[in-house]
From TrEMBL, chains A, B, C, D:
It catalyses: N-acetyl-L-glutamate 5-semialdehyde + phosphate + NADP(+) = N-acetyl-L-glutamyl 5-phosphate + NADPH + H(+). It is an enzyme of class 1 (oxidoreductase). Its EC number is 1.2.1.38. Its main location: cytoplasm. This is N-acetyl-gamma-glutamyl-phosphate reductase. It comes from Metallococcus carri. PANTHER family: N-ACETYL-GAMMA-GLUTAMYL-PHOSPHATE REDUCTASE, CHLOROPLASTIC-RELATED, N-ACETYL-GAMMA-GLUTAMYL-PHOSPHATE REDUCTASE, CHLOROPLASTIC-RELATED-RELATED. Keywords: Amino-acid biosynthesis, Arginine biosynthesis, Cytoplasm, NADP, Oxidoreductase. CDD domains: AGPR_1_actinobacAGPR_like (cd24148), AGPR_1_C (cd23934). The gene is argC.
Length: 343, 343, 343, 343
C-alpha cells in the first residue's frame, strides 16, 4: 500500500483529494493536516467523508507529514515552497498550488509578485508526450490550475496540429464557486452567488493567464498570447471554458476534427464528444474526465473549442492523483472516476 | 460475474443504476432497454456515463431482458407488474417502481386507483431484522420509495423503542427535482424551479403516505398514521425529511439518543451524526448513506428526527443494488459509495 | 414628503428597505447609516440600488439619525433598544430586529438570554383588527420576524375561527439564505448552500418559536404551543412555511375554506389562492404579498396550511413600510409591490 | 390612459410585459391573448401577477387585439409578421420577436431560412442618436434580441469612438434559462440545468449573431464581424456578456474610459460602473438597467467590455416599454424600474 498524507485537508481541494483517495485501491490515508483547523474532527469540516469522520487534523509541518510515500500539498498559493523544501527528496510531493507551475521567473514575478520558487514537472499528462514522460517516476509534481487544465485541453490540439494562429486567442470561462476556495468573502455568500453571474480578474490580470500561455506555447512551439476572462457561475463545481483562436487560411472543418481525434483518441480522461454534442459541466461532475467539443466558424475564420471539467476533480484533486499514479508507476487510471454524477 | 439488465435505462433512476453498476466489481452490464427512447445512443441521454456512451437502447420486453441474473425495472409506476410476470422465476427481479411495495390491497386501491399486484420483499435492510432476512436469497424485491426511505429511517428507531406515539406524526420533506422524473412538465422547467420552493400532494394524498405508515406500523407494532407533505426544492438531488412525533410522557433525551444509537450503531449506510451536528443533503450527494439526527423538544413533548439522503442513490438505485447484493449473497456494501460529493 | 432614515443600510434588510423606499411616492430618503461599513459608497455594497450608488454611509448614532420623520432600524438583534431610547418620542421608529417583539419578559429571557426591553405595537396588520388599530398613529413599531410572518398568516385563520386545536401544531419552514443575513459564516458560502438543504435550530430552540406562539395564542385566545423547525434552502430569498394543526372533531373542509376566505377576503397583501393551487416562493419574489393555501387531511384530522412569502419583502422591509404607512395615516399599500418577479 | 394589448401573454416575455405594465402609471391593460393557452386563467400561468389573476386569455387574432393604442407581440419567431399585417396602421405595434430586426434580407434568409418580412425601427434607444429619433412617434418597432442588447451596449462605445478593430470581435455570453422560453425541452428541465453550464449554437450559427453585427457595423460605419457563443447558466434570469475586440495600436486606457463615459454619461438605463467594479447579473435582476464595465488588456491589445442585463426586462419587455414610451412621446423612463432585486 502507498501511504499518503494530505496537507491542507480542511479546504475544498483537500476534501476532494480525500474523497478520491478513499476510493483508490492501493492507498492508505495517513496524516491529515491543516493550519487554523488543526485539532478539528474531519467530520465537522467534511461531513461527506463518513469513513474519515473521526480523524482529527494535525498541524501542518514537516514532522506531521514525515514518513509517507506521497504528500499532497493543498495549501494557499505561496505556502508550498517553504514546506516542500523540508520534505525528504525521496517522498513524492505533489503541489496543488501554483508555486511550481511557471517556468519563467519573470512571468511569476509579474503575476504573483514574489520570488520564483522554480518549476516542477507539470501534472497534465495529456499535454504532450513529454509531460507524461516527465511524470513517470517524478518526485516533485506541480498540479495545473483548474482553468489552465480546461483551457489547455480545449485548445492544445489546434496548436499541436498547426491549425491555430498564436495571436488573438480568447478564452472566457465560467467556474463554480468552489474554485474560489473556502475563505470567507462577502461576494461568495450563497445569497450573492445564487442566481448571478459575474466576471473577475478582467483585463488579463488573472494568474492563470501565463500558465495557459505557457502550455499553448509549448505545444505550438511559437509564443501564444491569450485574452482570458474568468466568470463566477451559480453552481458549486464545474468549469466551462469557451476558447477560440483564429485558424490559418484554408483550414477545413475536417482538419480540425482530425486534429482533435488524433490528440484524444486514446486518452482515457479527455473525451472528444461525437460531432454536434456539446459539453456540459453537469456530465463531468465528480468525474476525472474532461469533455471537449470543437467547431470551425468559417464566417470569421475561428475555431471554437469548448471544454467542461469538474474544477475540483480533474481540475485539481483528480489530476493530482492521476499524476501520482504515473509517478509511482501504477496504472494511470487507478482509483479515478470516469463517470459523472448527473443529473 | 453477475449479468445485469436495466429496463428503463433512459430515465433518472436508470441512469443512476448504471452509474453505480459501472463501479460494482462483480457486475457485467447486459441489456439496456427503454420505451420511447429505444434506438437511442446512451451517450445522448446520459452524457455522464462515458464508458457506456456507445451502447444503444433496446426496446423493453421480456425477450430483450432475458438471460440475465438480475433485472432492474426502472419503469413508470404501474408498468412493472405485467413485465415482471413474464420474467423467469429464477431471475432476480428488482422493481424500482411502486407496484409491489404495499401489502394492503385496500391502501393500494385507495392511493393508486388500480388493482393490487401483490407485494414483494421490501428492499430496506435497515428497517428491521426481518427485512434483511427476507432479502437474503430473494428473487423478487420491491425497492422503497425515495421519501419512505428517508422518513422511515428517521423515525423507525423511535417507534421500535416504543418512545413515540403512533398518532400525530408529521413529516415535511424537501426533494430535489430529479425525484419528479424526466417527464416534461411546465413546473419542472429550470426557470420555474430555480430560486423557488413549493409543496405538492398536500393534504395526505401523496402516494408515499401509506408506504411510510406501513413501515412505521411494522416497527411500532401498532397502527401509525402520518401527515406527510412533500415539497420541491431548487436542487437536482437530495431529500431532507423533517419528521416529528409525540413522545410518551417521561421519555428523556438520553433514551431517545440510546434508541437511535442502538438502531444504527452497526449500520454501514445509515449514520447517526454526532450530537449537535445536523444532516445536510449536500453531504450525501451521490452517496448510499443516509445521515440522521434527532432531538427531543421537551417543551412540546416531541421528538424531531431529520434525515438526509440522495433520492437517486440510497433513495432508489443505491438501495436497489444494496438489496441485490443481499439477494445474491455477496457483501451488502459491494460497489456502493459511502462518501458524498461535496461541496 | 416624509423624510426617512435607515440605520443598518449595509445589510440585506437595509438594502431591501431602500429598494422599496425608492419606489415610495411620498418618501424622501435621508440618512443612511451603518456600523463597520460607515464611510463606504452604497454602490459598492448594493450595486442594485443605482439611484443611491453615490451615497456614502454615515456612522449609526442618534445624531446621524436625527431630524427625520421616520427611522428604520435594521440592526443586529439586541442593538435597537439602546439606540431607540435616544431617538425623539415623536419620531416614528420602526425596528426590524427582535428587541420589542415579545410581550412576555420570561420568554424573552428564555430565548434571547438578555434583559427584556419591553414590547412595541406589532407590525402585522393582518393579524387581527387590534393590530391594525394599534399601528395607526404608532410612534414605535416592532416588525415581525420573517418566519413568524409566514407561519402566523398560514395558521391564524384556523385559530381565529376556533377550528384548530392549540397543541400539536407543527411548522416546518424553508428559507432562502438571505434570511441568515450578510455575516460571513462558512455554512453560508455559495458552494455549501447550492444544491443542499439543511435544518437548524432544531428541537424548539429557534428564537422565532415564542413569537409564533404569541401570535397564535393571541388569535386563539388560548395558549398555543408550536414545534417549529426552520431549514435553509438553496435560494437567495423566500420562505415556504408548511404548517399543520389538529382540527376539532367534525370540522369540515368547507368550514376550513370559509375561515380562510373570511380572514383574507379583503386583504391586499395576503392572497388565499384558488382551491387546488399551492403557493410557490417564486411567485412572491420581491412582492409584499403572501400566498396562502389550506387543505384538510381528514385521514389524520389535520389542517395543512402553506404560505409563501419573500422573507426580505413582506417578511421584513415591506412589512415595515406597510406599518409605516399605517403609522403615518397614508394608504396602507402605498409604494408596496403586489406582483412578484418570475420566473 | 394608453390602452395596451399583449399577444402571447402566457410566455415569459408576455408575463414580464404584464409585470411592468402593471407598474406603468399611464397604461390600462386591455386584451391578453395566447395560442394554446387561450381560455386559461392568468393566475394559473403567472401566479406572480396577482392583480391580473382572474383575467382569462383570449385567442390571439386581429379581432381580439383590435381597439388598443398599443399592441405588444410576444410570439414565437416568425409568427409576428402575418399578424402585424392585419393590425391597423395607426396602432403602435411592438414586436418582441425577431421578424423585423434585420435590415439585410440575405442575412435573414441565411440565419432564419424564411422570407424576409422587412425591418422596423430598432428599439434600442441607446444605440445612437438616430435610434432614439426613429423611435419617436414610431408605429412599428422591432424589439432587439436579449443577447444583442447586452452585447451591443457593451461594445458600441468602442466602435463609435473608433477605438476597436472591426475583425476578431469575440463575444461569449451566459444566459439564464428563461431566455430559452417556456417550451418543454428535456435540456431545460430543472434537474438538468441546476448546477450545470453548457454552450449552444456554437460556431457562428446563433441567430443573434447577424443582429449584433448589424448594430456594431452601424456604429462603426465599417463591417464588423463577430464570433458569438451563447451559454446556458443555472439561473432563471440574466445575461452576462463578455465581449472583446482588438484595439487600434496606441489606444490608451484613458481613451477607452472616455469613450464609454461619453456614450453613457447621460443614459438612464445604461450605467457605466465606477472603475474597478464589475457587473453582476444579480444587481440588475428585474431592472431595466444594463451595467457595463470595460478594461484595456494592453498585453494582448484588446478591450474587454462586460455587460449585465436582465434578459426579460431590459433584454425584452422593459426595452419594449421604453420604446413604447418614446413612440408615444411620454418620458422614456416612465414605469421602468431602475433598481434591481438583490440579493
Amino acid at each position: 500500500m502507498i501511504s499518503v498524507a494530505v496537507a491542507g485537508a480542511s479546504g475544498y481541494a483537500g476534501g476532494e483529494l480525500l474523497r478520491l483517495l478513499l476510493g483508490h485501491p492501493q492507498v492508505r490515508i495517513g496524516s491529515l493536516t491543516a493550519g487554523g483547523n488543526a485539532g478539528t474532527r474531519l467530520g465537522e469540516l467534511h461531513p461527506h467523508l463518513g469513513p474519515l469522520a473521526d480523524r482529527v487534523l494535525a498541524q501542518t509541518s514537516p514532522d506531521t507529514l514525515a514518513g509517507h510515500d506521497v504528500v499532497f500539498l493543498a495549501l494557499p498559493h505561496g505556502a508550498s515552497a517553504a514546506l516542500a523544501a523540508d520534505l525528504p527528496d525521496d517522498t513524492v510531493v505533489i503541489d496543488c498550488g501554483a508555486d511550481f507551475r511557471l517556468t519563467d521567473a519573470e512571468q511569476w514575478q509579474a503575476f504573483y509578485g514574489s520570488e520564483h520558487a522554480g518549476s516542477w514537472p507539470y501534472g497534465l499528462p495529456e499535454l504532450d508526450a513529454r509531460a507524461r514522460r516527465e511524470l513517470n517516476g517524478a518526485k516533485r509534481i506541480a498540479v495545473p490550475g483548474c482553468y489552465p487544465t480546461a483551457a489547455t485541453l480545449a485548445l492544445a490540439p489546434a496548436f499541436a496540429a498547426g491549425i491555430a494562429q498564436p495571436e488573438d486567442v480568447v478564452i472566457v470561462a465560467a467556474s463554480g464557486t468552489s474554485g474560489a476556495g473556502k475563505g470567507l468573502k462577502p461576494h461568495l455568500l450563497g445569497a450573492e452567488v445564487m442566481g448571478a453571474m459575474s466576471p473577475y480578474g478582467v483585463g488579463g490580470g488573472h494568474r492563470h493567464t501565463p500558465e495557459i500561455e505557457q502550455n499553448l506555447t509549448r505545444v505550438a512551439e511559437v509564443p501564444v498570447t491569450v485574452s482570458f476572462t474568468p466568470t463566477l457561475a451559480p453552481m458549486p463545481r464545474g468549469i466551462l471554458a469557451t476558447c477560440t483562436a483564429k485558424v490559418h487560411p484554408g483550414v477545413s472543418a475536417n482538419e480540425v476534427r482530425a486534429a482533435y481525434e488524433k490528440a484524444y483518441g486514446t486518452e482515457r480522461f479527455v473525451q472528444l464528444l461525437p460531432e454536434g454534442q456539446w459539453p456540459t459541466t453537469g456530465a463531468v461532475l465528480a468525474s476525472n474526465c474532461v469533455h471537449v467539443q470543437v467547431a470551425l466558424d468559417e464566417r470569421v475564420g475561428r475555431v471554437i473549442a469548448v471544454s467542461a471539467e469538474d474544477n475540483l476533480t480533474k481540475g485539481t484533486a483528480g489530476g493530482a492523483i492521476q499524476s501520482m499514479n504515473l509517478a509511482l508507476g501504477i496504472p494511470e487510471e487507478t482509483g479515478l472516476p470516469t463517470t459523472g454524477v448527473a443529473p
